[in-house]
Design brief:
- The protein is built from 13 helices and 19 strands.
- The chain is of the alpha/beta class.
- It folds into three domains: 194 residues, Rossmann fold (3-Layer(aba) Sandwich); 112 residues, Rossmann fold, CATH 3.40.50.980; 91 residues, 2-Layer Sandwich (GMP Synthetase, Chain A, domain 3).
- The strands form five sheets. It has a seven-stranded mixed beta sheet with strand order 4-3-5-6-7-8-9, with helices on both faces. A four-stranded antiparallel beta sheet has the order 10-11-12-13, with no helix packed on it.
- Strand 14 and strand 15 form a beta hairpin.
- The longest helix has 22 residues.
- The protein is globular, with a radius of gyration of 22 Å.
- The model has no long low-confidence stretch (mean pLDDT 90).
């Protein structure tokens, strides 16, 4: 069977069958999105208002936190006439989600999946995602993938590091990935041996697309260039980058090495699939699912063209609502029409989402998430920050709650030494709060180490 015929079989038969067995409507939703992406701004706005009204009615009836909030404010979702009516509701923050706990869940929700994220300040966040949200995010990502002339079933290498993905590589998942022609490569350890192996595997596999952290993929690309290994004749059509800020130098390195365009994506497990880059070079909002507001430091909504914090309302989250959710990232809503012709609004100048690498004592370059995963789900950890002062010394700042167990200190030191080296000095500092950077942004990994430093 030819490559194109195999891809068509997977994208039109096998993957839709899998989604049907999961009771997901991602095929139908993606098809609808491929029509609605060409709608006018007025049509998209009307569609958003209708979905917003429906979602808020469900939330007001079935989610205890919002049922009480609506009653206290005298807010009636049925009278919503504009997305501006969202401004009558309070912002949702990680602190609110943590404080309210199960009161954030719908009392009719079924099959919620538990997730966590470190957040931009290192404050652990535990939340839940329902089937509707999963379905819509899959459909939105699928649509964006197809913008670039690739599809589910095309050979793909995913450079990733989340234990959710790496921990589910059982036989069934392995079979599914082989069928879908998706291969996962761990993004954490970037030592010379692993980089050689990653490059060799990419050359052998000849994927149509890569997907993953821009920091990790650019590291692999740079290593191939240093070794004189050509990657630009493999047939890679596009490299999708997400989960971190994509810097210009990373885009240039990746594009030059693979001889293909780089497509940026913006979103997260908490906020959803917010925006994705089209071949014309603009970031389009997933407007059918996502309403984005830009606010100033006082919480005032700013007009398009102004820079401020990105606030997201996800319209497919009635089971565990994300309504006016403060992302902590800075961005600007675009005002122009994209040359591609899609009516989806634009998101510009996205900042934040930057996770540094750290360097182990043996010279291994490691994704900062390798350390974050040790900290972010520990009971009693309210916030954290890791400062790698040098290859030989790392400080961990912790803001802890009363139920924090002192035995966790030992677990942190042990976990860090396993990754950074047994002789590395790990210092734990209990602090009242985590100080922001000079820019005002919070970073949960700051590395001052360089590979030229002595151990």
């Amino acid at each position: 069977m030819s490559n194109s015929l195999y891809t068509e079989c997977i994208s039109k038969l096998i993957f839709p069958l899998q989604e049907k067995l999961k009771k997901h409507q991602s095929v139908t939703i993606r098809q609808a999105m491929e029509e609605s992406q060409w709608w006018s701004a007025e049509q998209l706005k009307a569609f958003q208002i209708k979905r917003l009204r429906t979602m808020l009615e469900k939330v007001g009836q079935h989610v205890p936190y919002y049922r009480d909030t609506f009653a206290k404010l005298g807010f009636d979702p049925r009278i919503i006439q504009s997305t501006n009516d969202l401004q009558k509701l309070p912002f949702l923050t990680k602190a609110v989600i943590r404080a309210e706990g199960d009161r954030m869940k719908s009392d009719i929700a079924q099959g919620l999946a538990r997730f966590n994220t470190g957040g931009s300040s290192g404050e652990p966040l535990i939340f839940f995602i329902g089937t509707e949200r999963v379905t819509h995010d899959v459909a939105a990502k699928w649509r964006a993938t197809r913008w670039w002339g690739v599809d589910i079933g095309d050979p793909e290498i995913v450079v990733w590091g989340s234990p959710i993905e790496l921990g589910t590589q059982d036989k069934l998942r392995g079979l599914r990935d082989r069928l879908m022609r998706t291969e996962l490569m761990p993004a954490f350890a970037m030592n010379e041996e692993n980089l050689d192996r990653f490059v060799a595997r990419i050359v052998e596999r000849r994927p149509k697309m890569l997907f993953g952290y821009p920091s990790a993929i650019s590291h692999i690309a740079g290593h191939a260039q240093k070794k004189g290994i050509a990657l630009d004749q493999l047939g890679v059509k596009v490299v999708f980058c997400t989960s971190e800020r994509l810097y210009d130098h990373q885009r240039a390195t990746i594009s030059q090495a693979f001889g293909c365009p780089v497509a940026n994506g913006y979103g997260g497990r908490d906020a959803g699939f917010i925006a994705h880059e089209c071949p014309s070079g603009n970031m389009h909002l997933t407007a059918e699912d996502i309403i984005v507001e830009i606010i100033d430091e006082a919480g005032n909504v700013l007009p398009a063209g102004s820079s401020g914090e990105i606030v997201v309302t996800h319209l497919a989250t009635a089971d565990f609502p994300f309504i006016r959710y403060r992302t902590g990232d800075i961005g600007t809503l675009g005002t122009e029409q994209c040359p591609c012709g899609r009516g989806l609004p634009l998101l510009k100048e996205i900042q934040g989402r930057s996770t540094d690498f750290v360097i182990a004592a043996d010279g291994t370059v490691m994704h900062g998430l390798a350390l974050i995963y040790i900290l972010r789900d520990l009971p009693g950890v309210k916030a954290f920050k890791v400062i790698q002062e040098s290859i030989a010394q790392t400080r961990v700042q912790l803001v802890v709650e009363p139920h924090y167990r002192e035995e966790s200190d030992q677990a942190i030191v042990k976990g860090f030494k396993q990754r950074l080296g047994d002789d590395v000095d790990i210092t734990i500092e209990k602090v009242a709060e985590i100080s922001p950077e000079k820019s005002g942004k919070y970073r949960y990994i700051v590395s001052h180490a360089t590979q030229s430093q002595p151990n």
